[in-house]
């Protein structure tokens, strides 16, 4: 009986975070490169989720080799999947307002993260993207794999110098 009760209590304790939807998010140790706010379940600073580079590079990532309008040649971009960032923060909305350092902002449908392997590139050809070279984060769609993405809609969503996301 006692063991049964204990295991019940244990199961309940394990189930709770799932019910609440909150998953612990470590605190950043290095400089914060991305702040996420809005309709998110997982936070580490008030109602925001803050990421340093190491946290972002720990998420599920991919390498996208593609031509873009911004470079003369095909380049290799790598970084966390947009879907992995949204999962890490427990995003609950349908859209993400992506804000750049230069005040540029645009809304990206969360459906894009499900339909395409969109990444928030931290690196180009293996090197960290500097703020001077469209860093710290550059939204990269897999243009070469999906030529239909080669248009103004997706170029507009290809935000460079990303610093903040607002999920809604
Ligand atoms: N940070 C930032 N990213 C941005 C923009 C911007 O002004 N700032 N413009 C967007 C738009 S509307 C498009 S069409 C492309 C334009 O890239 P281009 O200015 O190199 O033609 O980048 C997108 N990413
Ligand atoms: Mo644009």
Summarize the structure.
The chain is an alpha+beta fold. The chain contains five helices and eleven strands.
Explain what this protein looks like in three dimensions.
The chain has 168 residues and is of the alpha+beta class. It has 5 helices and 11 strands, in the order αββαββαββαββββαβ. The protein has helices spanning 2-20, 53-58, 82-89, 110-115, 152-157; strands spanning 32-38, 49-52, 61-66, 75-80, 95-100, 105-109, 119-121, 123-124, 127-128, 138-140, 162-167. The strands form 3 sheets. Strands 2-1-11-5-6 form a 5-stranded mixed sheet. It has a 4-stranded antiparallel sheet with strand order 3-4-8-9. A two-stranded antiparallel sheet has the order 7-10. The structure holds the ligand Nc1nc2c(c(=O)[nH]1)N[C@H]1C(S)=C(S)[C@@H](COP(=O)(O)O)O[C@H]1N2 and molybdenum atom (MO). Molybdenum atom is lined by residues 152, 155-156. Residues 152, 155-156 line the site of molybdenum atom.
